[in-house]
């Protein structure tokens, strides 16, 4: 199976051997916390909060800081990211599941899948717990990788952990960085929510209520997207950010 970057505009049935799931914006709606924390950070550095929020989603914090403050030493980004992770982990006010997330996670229980998130392990646990969602047994978190999304390392690692060829995996993502990472890994990508539509995922749904999970006689995972869900939504694109601004370096240790 080969990846496609054409957004689906008709009823869609996709099959895969494994599913790779982003967390924030895909399974968990954490926008309230993310916006609170990053608005405060932007203001403290004399930056426009609205412009900062355009590049926050999908990336590890140190990589976002490197884009917004390109002249600043990376060591300061790692240090401030440690503080940011601690604040985000402690703040779960407003963290809720994305529509249909609980049912979707129940439907894929026992099927090959992994969480691939830019959060560290502590933050992932806090948010999945706050949203009352089951934590996948296979997880690729910030500590696991050297490079932040849009680098495909995390998704390739998730596929390897599951023992599945990247071309046989489907990624679930909401952000520009995450969609780019999934496509760069040679995988198909289902975009979730309003942010995703502008970034040419393989298919797009409003939320997880629009996806029905079954298995084929041969054991493959079959995903059926409803026609209205598969049509792309109008959404303001996230600002294009220089991908090279996030160097391949180990993230700061989790708090």
Largest sheet: 6 strands, parallel
Which structural class best describes the helix and strand composition? alpha/beta
Query: Helical residue percent?
Result: 25-40%
Cα distance, first to last residue?
40 Å
- Give the overall shape: globular
By DSSP, the count of extended strands is 11
In N-to-C order, the SSE pattern is EEEHHHHEHEHEHEHEEEEH
Q: Strand order, main sheet: write it out.
A: 6-5-2-7-8-9
Radius of gyration: 17 Å
Describe this structure in words.
The chain is an alpha/beta fold and 255 residues long. Helices cover 34% and strands 16% of the residues. It contains 9 helices and 11 strands. The chain has helices at residues 31-44, 49-56, 61-68, 74-90, 101-107, 121-130, 153-162, 176-184, 227-230, and strands at residues 12-16, 18-21, 28-29, 96-97, 113-116, 139-140, 169-173, 188-192, 203-205, 211-215, 221-225. Strands 6-5-2-7-8-9 form a 6-stranded parallel beta sheet. A 3-stranded antiparallel beta sheet has the order 1-11-10. Strands 3-4 form a two-stranded antiparallel ribbon. Strand 10 and strand 11 (221-225) form a beta hairpin. Helix 1 packs across helix 2 (49-56), helix 3 crosses helix 4 and helix 4 (74-90) runs parallel beside helix 6. The longest helix has 17 residues, at 74-90. The chain is globular and about 55 Å long. 49% of the residues are buried. The model is unreliable at 1-9 and 229-255 (pLDDT under 50).
């Amino acid at each position: 199976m080969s990846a496609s970057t054409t957004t689906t505009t008709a009823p869609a049935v996709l099959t895969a051997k494994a599913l790779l799931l982003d967390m924030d914006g895909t399974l968990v709606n954490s926008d309230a916390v993310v916006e609170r924390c990053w608005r405060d950070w932007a203001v403290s550095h004399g930056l426009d909060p609205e412009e900062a929020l355009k590049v926050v989603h999908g990336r590890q914090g140190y990589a976002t800081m490197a884009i917004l403050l390109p002249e600043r030493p990376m060591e300061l980004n790692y240090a401030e990211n440690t503080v940011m992770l601690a604040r985000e982990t402690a703040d779960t006010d407003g963290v809720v599941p994305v529509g249909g997330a609980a049912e979707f996670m129940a439907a894929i229980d026992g099927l090959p899948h992994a969480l691939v998130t830019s959060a560290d392990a502590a933050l992932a646990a806090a948010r999945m717990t706050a949203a009352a969602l089951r934590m996948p047994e296979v997880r690729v978190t910030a500590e696991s990788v050297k490079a932040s999304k849009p680098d495909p390392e995390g998704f390739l690692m998730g596929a390897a952990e599951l023992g599945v060829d990247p071309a046989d995996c489907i990624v679930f993502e909401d952000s520009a960085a995450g969609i780019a990472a999934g496509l760069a890994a040679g995988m198909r990508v289902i975009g979730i929510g309003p942010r995703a539509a502008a970034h040419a995922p393989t298919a797009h749904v409003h939320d997880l209520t629009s996806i029905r999970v079954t298995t084929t006689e041969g054991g493959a995972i079959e995903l059926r997207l409803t026609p209205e869900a598969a049509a792309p939504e109008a959404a303001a694109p996230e600002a294009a950010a220089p991908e090279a601004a996030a160097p391949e370096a180990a993230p700061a240790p989790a708090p």
